[in-house]
Amino acid sequence: MNINLPKYNQTVYAELLQAMVWNNKCALCAATGTGKSYIAAKFVQEAVIKQDTLILVPFRASAKIWNTLLPQATTMTYQGLLYNRPELAKYKLIICDEMHHLGADEWGKVFNELMENYHGKLLGLTATPIRFLDGNRNIAKEFFDGNDIQGVQLSEAIQKKILPTFEYVTALYDLPESKGNNELTENLGLAGIRRKYSEEFKDDIKKYYCQKNGIDLILQKYPGYTRAGITNIANRMGLTFRDSQPWTAEEDELLKQNASLSISELLKIFPDRTKAGITGRKHNLGITNRSMHTWTEEEISILKANADLTSEEIRSRFFPDLTISNINSARRKYDCRKDRNWKPEKIERFCALYSKGGWNAVKKDPEFSDMSKKAINGAAHRYNVHSAASHPTTWTEEEKDICREWLAIPEKERPPRRELAKRIPAHSENGIKDMCRRLKTD
Questions:
Q1: Residue 149 near residue 16 (C-beta atoms within 8 A)
Q2: Shared domain check, 325 and 215
Q3: Coil, helix or strand at residue 76
Q4: What superkingdom does the record give (predicted)?
């Protein structure tokens, strides 16, 4: 199938080609109905990777469309990731259709686990990269490193008559009682289970899931599933692992004896319990958090003498019976943290970097690369230094020359503006875009 793109998508396609050369991840954001799927399909065709492409879709109906566009590619639903994890190494490209669905807890978690060992290209497609009802999460930034290509947006599509004008119809509607909704949802969920899984499989779920190591027993018999998938199916069948295993008197006594341990250490003692289960049981038994450790002068001296070590290293070498939280609290209280013992030269360098480009510029410096954003901003507060990148800055001629060099490159061969931003960390991408526009008109 030869794909010819309309004129309004040819520029978008050229930008996508450039972006995929420079980056392994990219998100294409354009209004529904403007041809995102055709742009992606043309990219696959011209890259000659039809048989090396995996397409993730939210619904089976979407898979039929992709099977028509790219019959040699492999299609799979996001839901399918919960039950069958494909071998991603054989794919050179993964297309995430309607990528905003990755914001769902289970799907996003499994997807991130799969991506840890994937080194090919990743292309996302969506009309709505922002999940407004989920804390305004930006899926393009969260899963695609912020590398997004903006296609034709809704207002432009209507203005150019690519899409018809909408007609809004309003009407009053009484929703059924919540009880009725819950019953309908429950019945729909159970109906889906009846359709999808065999009676033998459901019987095994009922038989083993609530037992100790029950999930492991199920996985031995059905290796094509994952722990998350089994849990999801069992929960839809009304089975809950926690309720099925009440705490025994022996477990309660063991929990009381080891109440001073951290949750991670308690999980080793109670391998069949969850973090939430242990925390809830401690609350039910009236077990409060461990009492604060009283630090001796000798211990404080050890903290100060080893300020350059991480809290994990200090714990493993000197205080194995304490938690990381204990050590972090003491380092803050007694002023024993790593950055508090910086030499004047290091402080001067930090302040210069932060004042010029903010925490991002500091993070790029090898000397400070192991610091988190929170630690960098905290150090900036202590040293009373402010970032010039947070407000309009003065452009130097050297910075303008970098923009002129970028503008001199033919538009179709020009690297993305984000690559330009890496060379000019003192300015935001919007600031660089504005400067390029002014230089272009001069």
A1: yes
A2: no
A3: strand
A4: Bacteria
Spatial distance between the Cα atoms of 6 and 12, rounded to a whole number of angstroms: 10
pTM, 2 dp: 0.41
165 inside domain: no
Residues 6 or more apart whose Cβ sits within 8 Å of residue 226: 82, 83, 85, 110
Q: Could you tell me if 317 and 423 lie in one domain?
A: no
CB 81 within 8 A of CB 114: yes
Q: Predicted confidence band at 289 (pLDDT cuts at 50, 70, 90)?
A: low
* Alpha-carbon 167 to chain mean position: 36
| Closest C-alpha to 331, from 363, 323, 354 | 323
pLDDT tens digit sequence for 348-360:
888 888 888 787 8
Residues 50 and 18 in one domain: yes
Whose structure tokens read 């009922």?
206
User: Which range (334-338, 382-386, 411-415) has the least confidence?
Assistant: 334-338
Q: Is 46 found in the same domain as 111? A: yes
Please, which residues have CB within 8 angstroms of residue 264's CB and are 6 or more apart in sequence? none
326, two tokens: 């204990």
User: How many CB atoms sit inside 10 A of residue 226's CB?
Assistant: 18
